[in-house]
Design goal:
Largest sheet: none
Helix content: over 70%
Number of helices: 10
Number of strands: 0
Order of helices and strands: HHHHHHHHHH
Radius of gyration: 18 Å
CATH superfamily: Tetracycline Repressor, domain 2
Distance between the termini: 50 Å
CATH class: Mainly Alpha
Strand content: under 5%
Oligomer: single chain
Shape: globular
CATH topology: Tetracycline Repressor, domain 2
């Protein structure tokens, strides 16, 4: 793929992730194309259907989780607690709650095998990372990857605007509480 085509595809994925998280899975593909500064035909050349775009966005999120895990694994020896905190904050920054809502609400969309395989492999690596962190006394020994992902998804679920106004730091406080709970018991 040419560099300019790869940049366009990246821009479409980035905007799709942002808009799915912000407005849900039923955002129009025209809106995604417009936000990506491409025509609808270019979007369809890159992603033949909404389902293909959702798969690509999901795989992109999984790749970001993998990158966060790699950073944490590299940092465990130097500072296990800092590696854990950084991993959690990286995952929070991925806005997993909004993405889960958007993808999970996609009517009729069942995760295809490539997504399921990628999710399973990532959960395994995450569990391996948690075992290493537990060995270094950074996290509870009973903490599991799926629980962590679900917890972060819950913490980052979109909240009504009124709630955001009256508790603007709610997610930060909940993440701090999760980090405190997750430390070795």
């Amino acid at each position: 793929m040419r560099a300019d085509a790869a940049q366009r595809q990246r821009r479409i994925l980035t905007e799709a992730r942002h808009l799915f998280a912000e407005r849900g899975h039923d955002i129009s593909l025209d809106a995604i194309a417009e936000a990506s500064e491409v025509g609808i035909a270019t979007l369809y050349r890159n992603f033949a259907s909404r389902a293909d775009l959702i798969v690509a966005v999901t795989l992109d999120v999984i790749a970001d989780i993998e990158a966060a895990l790699a950073q944490a694994q590299a940092a465990i020896t130097a500072s296990p607690q800092r590696a854990w905190e950084q991993l959690v904050r990286e995952l929070v920054g991925l806005n997993l709650g909004a993405m889960t809502d958007a993808v999970g609400d996609a009517s009729g969309w069942n995760a295809p095998p490539e997504v399921t395989v990628a999710q399973d492999a990532t959960l395994k690596r995450f569990d391996d990372t948690l075992r290493t962190l537990a060995h270094h006394d950074a996290v509870r020994s009973d903490l599991r990857a799926i629980e962590t992902i679900v917890a972060i998804g819950i913490l980052t679920r979109p909240q009504p605007e009124a709630i955001q106004r009256i508790t603007p730091h709610l997610v930060d406080h909940l993440v701090d509480a999760f980090l405190a709970w997750s430390r070795r018991a």
